[in-house]
Amino acid sequence: MAQRQAQLKFGGQGLALTVPNQSLQECSFMSNLITDRESTFLSYFIPSDDPKLLPSYRFMFQECSELKHCNHKMQAWRFPGEVEAFNDDGEEYSGQKLLNTLIKESVYGIVVCVRWYGGQLLGPVRFQHIVDTAKGAIQKYKKSFEEKKQKEAWMQATMAQQQQRQPRSLNPLDQKVRQITAKDRTVNLLRKTLGFPILQEVDYYAKSLSTLEMLLQSRNSMISSLRSQLQKSKETENVEDTSSTPKEQKATMSEKKVDNDNYTPKQPEGATVLLENSEIQEQVQKKPDAES
């Protein structure tokens, strides 16, 4: 980071300061403006727990071009170890109120409230504006700090989940044992299908890597042999099913023939009714002839 040297007097002593070449807005938290009868108030807060940086921060406020035309730069700072003080800069009692704000908010750093005087005296309400803008700058810092903590916690949790998902590296013995165990499951499944007894459990961790390598090759050969036997068994079953099919077809055809021989067509109900009606009519016509 580019840096620049500056000479500034504090307490009658000349101090050579090394100040980062960045704007005040980049290293501080700024409040909203408060305007009352043409007087404007604005506060900055720079969080820090190192009192050695105080001269550098104060120099940044002094050199800031945006604040050169303000009438007051009221300051207060507080660091661990009861290192605290304030500067009214012509606005009596304002520095003490800024320091009290730092203490109440339980923060370390430097707070600066600037005022552009509008030509009218505001009275005691000006202290309320000073405190309100200082609180606003500190609250923005706290909000940013909490968001940063939440983001860091989320990133840590995400990294932990990713590490858990990543497979752990296995030593050669564990790798061989896992491979043979998987082969044994395949062998037992094929043997069960063929009706053979399954393999007995073996303590593979008690064997050497060379022995495990030989067992792994043996399992591969065993799987190939069992699969070929299973394939032959399926082919034999298919041949038997094909040879039994013509006999079943002949039996079915003979049954159909018997059913056809015993088949007697049924007369529709409507025809029977017509026949009965015609017989009744003939009987009715024959009755007069019999009487005559």
From TrEMBL:
<comment type="similarity">
    <text>Belongs to the IMPACT family.</text>
</comment>
<dbReference type="InterPro" id="IPR020568">
    <property type="entry name" value="Ribosomal_Su5_D2-typ_SF"/>
</dbReference>
<feature type="domain" description="Impact N-terminal">
    <location>
        <begin position="37"/>
        <end position="138"/>
    </location>
</feature>
<dbReference type="GO" id="GO:0140469">
    <property type="term" value="P:GCN2-mediated signaling"/>
</dbReference>
<dbReference type="Pfam" id="PF01205">
    <property type="entry name" value="Impact_N"/>
</dbReference>
<dbReference type="InterPro" id="IPR001498">
    <property type="entry name" value="Impact_N"/>
</dbReference>
<feature type="compositionally biased region" description="Basic and acidic residues">
    <location>
        <begin position="247"/>
        <end position="260"/>
    </location>
</feature>
<feature type="region of interest" description="Disordered">
    <location>
        <begin position="227"/>
        <end position="292"/>
    </location>
</feature>
<dbReference type="InterPro" id="IPR036956">
    <property type="entry name" value="Impact_N_sf"/>
</dbReference>
<dbReference type="InterPro" id="IPR023582">
    <property type="entry name" value="Impact"/>
</dbReference>
<dbReference type="GO" id="GO:0035861">
    <property type="term" value="C:site of double-strand break"/>
</dbReference>
<protein>
    <recommendedName>
        <fullName>Impact N-terminal domain-containing protein</fullName>
    </recommendedName>
</protein>
